[in-house]
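Rotation project, supervised by the postdoc (A.L.). Task for the rotation student: set up a whole-complex structure prediction and record inputs and outputs verbatim in this book. Inputs entered:
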Amino acid sequence: MSAPILLDPTNESRPAQREQLTRPASVKGLTVGLLDIVKARGDVYLNRLEELFVAEGAKVLRFRKPTFTKPAPPDLRHEISIQCNVVIEALAD
Amino acid sequence: MKPQLPDGLVAIVKRECATCVMVDPLFANIAASGTPLTVYTQDDPTFPASVSAIHDADLSVSWHYDIETVPTLLRIENGEEADRTFGWSKEAWQKFTGITDLGADLPVMRPGCGSLSVDPNLEDELRVRFTSSTLHSRHVELASAEDEFESMFTRGWTDGLPVIPPTPERVLRMLTGTTRSPQDIVAIAPPNLVELTIEKIAINAVMAGALPEYLPWIITALEAVCNDEFNMHGVLATTMPVGPVIICNGPGTKAIGMNSGVNVFGQGNRANLTIGRAVQLTIRNVGGGKPGEVDRATHGNPGKLSFCFAEDEAGSPFGTLAQERGIAPQQNAVTVFAGEGPRCVVDQAARTPEQLTNSFAACLRATHHPKSVLSFDAILVVSPDHSRVYAEAGWDREKILSELYARLNIPGTELVKGAHDMAEGLPAKFADRTVPKFKAGGILLAHAGGGAGLFSSIIGGWANGAMGSTPVTRPVIS
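Outputs recorded:
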């Protein structure tokens, strides 16, 4: 019996390998982006984080997704990438 | 590549065909008349006896020139086909060759025989031989001792049920269901935002167990879900138990044997089940949307394997969902809705449309939570036994919907946080207002189900509008 040949049903792509950035020793002087995905009470969590980061000497910038049901728009992602050193995304309720 | 034929007359014959044998001597007459003649024989290289022939051994000429019947006579001018006749017609052959007494002693007409190039036993093999270069997908070669079904599970290609092995033969046969090119890009598939080609859809349609005639419906359903409006990304990623519910309309639903009647949401109908399954397999395999990864559903629902049905149009007293959504009568169409599993509405006593509508409204009120308002849409699938109540009372779609909406304006006192000792609810400021359960257009009315049973069904939706998902309706184009 000859070996069966199947056609690959997947997208045949491999995820790009990216090295993780080194974890900063301190957040002092860094710009920290806080992305609110607009799920309920995400802001409560982020408000507390902002207090803690400011106390540590970081500059905090706040961002919001238009809706948690869709990926962040490319413009928003770009904005965060050029304004911030690190980013925290508040996930859910 | 399509073989070039010489100018003049070209005949395609096979010895196995009695009509070809009958006309054999005529080829010598044609050749003697001075008209250039080339004969291709499909089976026996020594046939016909009256002139020498070229053996179309791999059936390349027959395939590329779409020969369905032998004998076929082609007239080639400047390398292009100018005319053809097939079978034996004395008048046609005499006119075609310009020989006025050609075959004068033969019968007026004899049908030909099927060309070997359309022999059902050879067709798949020939399609692979001559058209597989149109396919770009990677070939996955299995070991001869490998169980192909198990290997597809191992590779993570299935939805948990076995799939049909997507061999080139099967995929090319599937592609006969559409006129679109295999490399046409239909949509960008979430969550990995991958260009989705007709070829990849066909592969997944084969795996789902679909037939070629279902393919246009599958393509349309994928076009309908892979856009910002329907938001397949969010439908996939949500923790809520929703997936694409596919409602099919138009005469094509009957042509492909879809079920709109008994057990309409259940098992047993190939078209219903495999169209929905092909959509989900495509999102899984091409888009990369897998449970436990981007699919974060808390419970999911069995309809995420496949939830697809046809509307019972002939039996509907209130028109069709597709027409309500702007589709012309007799046009095949697909509507997609981000929905959970169906829940039953039992009312075996209502004999007036008001009583029945009261029951529907009370059950719709509980969709997701009795205090949840304006956030979710729903489909109300009315059964034939229930729709008869409306038909006898002369209620049309507009009347049914307006009566439903009127019953679903809820006093704020029932909706605010703490009411009925439930923490869920609206802020206290809504206590002195009346709030509708559904936004305008939030109830979709469809007609389906078996002819016996005073039951209808509600399919609850997901976060609606621009913040979530909006139902999408698209015409099905072959």
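Student's summary: Residues 76 and 82 of chain A are 10 Å apart (CA to CA).
Supervisor addendum: Residues 42-55 of chain A form the longest helix (14 residues).
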